[in-house]
Amino acid sequence: MRQDAWMIVFRKELVDALRDRRSLLLAFLFCWLGPLLAAVLSYTVPQPGLLPAFLLVAAFTAAMPLAIDSMAGERERGSLEPLLLNAVPPAELVVGKWLAIVALSLAGVVFNLVCTAIAVYATPLGNLPAASLLWMCATVAPLCILASGLQLLISTFARSHKEANSYLSFLTLVPMLIGILGEFFPGRLWWLSAIIPVLGQQRMLSGLVHGHALHLPWLLAAGVCSILGGLIAVAANARLLRSEKVVFGR
Amino acid sequence: MTQCKFFRRAETIPTAMIQIENVHKAFGNIAAVDGITFTAQDGAITGLVGPNGSGKTTTLRLMTGLSRADKGRVLVDGLNPAEQPIHARHRIGALTDSLGNYPRLTAREHLQYFGELQGVGEEELQPRISQLIDQFDLSAIADRRAQGFSQGERMKVALARAIVHDPPNVLLDEPGNGLDVLSARTLRALLAGFRAAGKCVIISSHVMAEIAALCDQVVIILRGRVAAQGVPEELLRSTGTSNLEEAFVALTV
Known about the structure:
The complex is a heterodimer.
Chain A: H1 5-19, H2 21-31, H3 33-41, H4 50-61, H5 64-76, H6 80-84, H7 90-122, H8 130-157, H9 161-184, H10 191-195, H11 199-209, H12 216-240, H13 244-248
Chain B: H1 3-7, E1 17-27, E2 30-41, E3 44-49, H2 56-64, E4 71-76, H3 85-90, E5 92-95, H4 107-117, H5 122-135, H6 151-162, E6 169-173, H7 181-196, E7 200-205, H8 208-212, E8 217-222, E9 225-230, H9 232-239, H10 244-252
Parallel strand pairs in B: 3-7, 3-8, 5-6, 6-7
Antiparallel strand pairs in B: 1-2, 1-4, 8-9
Helix pairs in contact in B: 4-5, 4-6, 9-10
């Protein structure tokens, strides 16, 4: 029985990423900065509003090294052409790589939330029940799907490892800025801000950490939009791999 | 899946060979391949020789279907790789010029990964990997990561990986680059083995001496066109030279 190609690629990419210890360590270092800062500040002025920004960033940073390595890196070391020479549709390869990035990104989010739980338990950070943490996870999970799709697409588009790194660092500014600025505009959530990826998640996370209830239809709408965006990015990526310019570099 | 019966026995397929018919390929204004025609037979080694930038790599890429011809036709065992890339790739093992090892995977994992992707069943794959490790003399590095491999080791891993599904056609792009005498000798022995097994082997090179020792047929490519082709002796006669190196120079200048 032949395994699905995406499964084979998924497994290989995860093994590869886990062996790249330094990149992995650095990426996950970012993931607990938010809870750490919030915990330290909680002894002076409790700032739970810090948590959403860092959680959003975690969804983007945890899998960034893998996103760079699995396309831009693959091309730079000359292994993309041999990989595409296997009798497998390129779309399956893209899906495998994308899901590996999603898995790492989700791991980063979960790691961030576990650290948050520890901070809430150990410091006077505020009242954040376990249920809220689970809702936060459900809010950000679809964003991981979108972030991974975009990161892989940009990595495919980039001409080199270095270029991919610059672009993706820039992409990470989006959740960072929206996360920080969002705290200064504690407005109501309305439909347009709910369905805009990152912004919608920021609004909902902000509500959760300040003790408001989550409006379930918004959660679903935001989730569907992010997942759709992720799928579009993956489809675009598979298309991009049909271009000779992209495969052989420019 | 059907690929196993698909890529075994090359000899049962009447058109088992690689045919290149008046193929053109341009990048912008530059014609990389400008009307190349030749046929590579099964059980023979065909050498593509030409200076750097003459269109050898582009010609090989057209055979794998990763690059599409602007004009003309490529047939791999009767299949057009531009139209049926998946079927054609089952029948091709290609060594690219950049080798492309994964630094964090071991030699064995390279074979495992590509074997699985090519759809070789698990019960066939393990014996096949052991056989390749023996045949390519990789046992000392089989479970080491590719990070610190020498050029010869990298080439052997890349070649073993490319033919893990035992394809009837083997394409090698500048396999001799950077190899020491011993590795080059190993490579020649492997290629002779492919020929004896009835495979259609195409090897590109800019080193005439490498080709002379190996090939049954030589195709000399200059600026995207075939300057001369034939068995080595024929080329010597037509250019009035005593060795292939001089024949190559006589045609190039």
